[in-house]
Amino acid sequence: MPTVDVDQRRVVGARVKAKAVHVTSESEAARRYGQLSKTKMVFGTVLSVNTAVNPTTNRSTTTVVAEYDFGGGVTKRKSLNIRSVHAVAPEEENQQPSPAESPNEPTGTNNDDNPTGTNTHNASVASPGAFAGNNQGAVNVYPVAPMFDPRPVRQICHGTEWRESDPDTLLEVNGPVPHRSWSVRTTIAGETIGPGDDIQQRLSRLDYFLLMFPPSQLTLMHLLMNEEIQKINTLTPATHQAMTKGELLKFFGVIILCTKFEFGNRASLWSRTAKFKYIPAPCFGDTRMSRTRFDLLFRCLRFSYQPAFRPIGMAHETFRWMLVDDFVENFNKHRASNFMPGMTLCIDESFSRWYGLGGHWINIGLPHYVQMDRKPKAGCEVQNAADGESGVILRLKLVKTELEAREDDGLTLGTRVAKYLVEPWARTDRIVCGDSFFASVATAKELKSMGLRFIGVVKNASSHYPMTWLSSLELSNRGDHKGLVHLDNDGNPDMMAFVWVDRERRYFISNCSSLVEGDPHVRNRWRQGDDMEAEPEREELTVPTPKVRNIYYDTCAAIDQNNRHRQDNLQIERKIETKNWATRVGTTILGMCIVDAWLVYKGATGTSETQSEFYSWLAEELIDNSYDKGPIRRSTGSVTEASPPQHLFDSRTGAGRSGIQAHLTPTKRKRKVKGVIMQKQFYQGQCVVCASKFKGQKRKGFKSSFLCSICNDESLDSTAAESKVWLCHSKYGRNCFAEHMAACHSS
Question: Ranges of Low complexity compositional bias (predicted)?
């Protein structure tokens, strides 16, 4: 009787296999198996076989329920059509590769010099009698076998060899990078402020804004706007007063103040009549800048010099860019001379939102109009560099024309832009972190030649990068990683390419740090258990991460965070509408200066006030500034004007004083009732002269809110009420201050 072959797919307990994309989602398969996700087969055990007949077509359908093993203790039960399930031969069972197993042979899909991708380092071996004596006098010279390198070549990409050496990936590539913190130069020669250096808040918010805003730009805008005002005076019978630098700062303050209100018509901000019962009127007239004056200054707002007529031979596009070029140049020069970044630099792009006229097809509006699939969707693209620790913008580059991308100097566009953005900090051994626009092997090499390090995520610019080998690895668990090294002429690793997996795979190129385990990435997530009727549970996910990955992700979001501060918190671009593209780009850069002032203020003072509160206080200080009333020193590294006398400042805090020599000064402390601070009532203390007069009597004397300025300066504790010398003011008909001066400060 002939034997009948049994279909192993229909046998419970038999071993079967199926494609990974049929068993799990495509994203999960791509995370585990990379470019092999479409063809990878996973093995499982049959649990049940079900056959159903369609009553309409009378056709049967067989499904196989099996539990498939993904390695690392991860299994998944899946019901598949029997046509997607295959039986497993005994020899296949023994050939299953283990997870994270490296390919045995090097691959070479991007190999120009070695198309087969095989190891070309085959040594020639001399025969045993090669160096014996020869009676005929002939000397046979045999090639010397090179030393064996235990680090196998895994992929050769356009002549670049990448070797597998796990011990080398655990060492600092090109040596360690010294840690340093950011700092900014102040108006005092030689003084810098860094993280936590201004806890006493000796500098005001206005001072921090002036540190971040280029002084040369303030002078330029003052001259250009006065020229525009003079032009209006010559064309109209009205005579408008020239603007001062202090008024320009007040104008900036009113712009920030506008972002605090919702309005349809900007003129309504000067109304003194409330439109709604519970929403007070803005009353912008209290700023001492009228609506007509604000409209005039906004109309005359200029950020850069542009001649009245286009020079002969100059492109129309170049002529229009002159409306913002000076602001960008002054910004870059000021940051390069005034701000010292920390250990890491971030390079990315920002956007100045613009939905008006523009584009290369029309000679009006924004010269180069960029559209993207993320917010803001259209506008002027600005490529920039920022400090990785503080988030302060350091350098700007406007994306002006597509012709820049066509320049052929042997480098990609991303590499050229990266070199320009970090040029002022060359030879400082800082770490530059960039996204896939900048990341490539060429960028890592060019920045190394400039004396800088680089870490980036590679996506499309994979030339000379071992993408084929890394994407073929099987990585089962989140946090798994694997790296290859490139060797210099001395045989030392000078570059590292590695893959790290979390939700999806990330491919990195780096010429610094190592794959030593760093601080794990921890996040909390809601998870639904097997019981669909049970309540979801909060789980803590811990993903192992290498050190080099942590450096990158601690830095790469600096510019994105700065953009969100400007667009979502400050909101100048949303609240201040304009039909002039240059005004929009200029206010975007102005917003960067304001956000940078907040970031430096927060880092230096460690304040607990919110970002919104800082902008409100800054608006008040800009509006009430006294810039035109006294000499100002600029943070150029040297004192340009004479310093104010020291007796005009509090010797303890450095704050400005309202009087000179000995006088009564009101306390700044507010009264507190049952834990509630009374904003309109000052704290009062017992007058020391009255207390001495009524000592031993039932009456204790009078209370006062005034202090002796000399005793207040000499007080060690600036907050304790007991250490204050309270004195009655002469306006109440008492001579307590005179008696105190005669008794304590007569000498």
Answer: 103-120
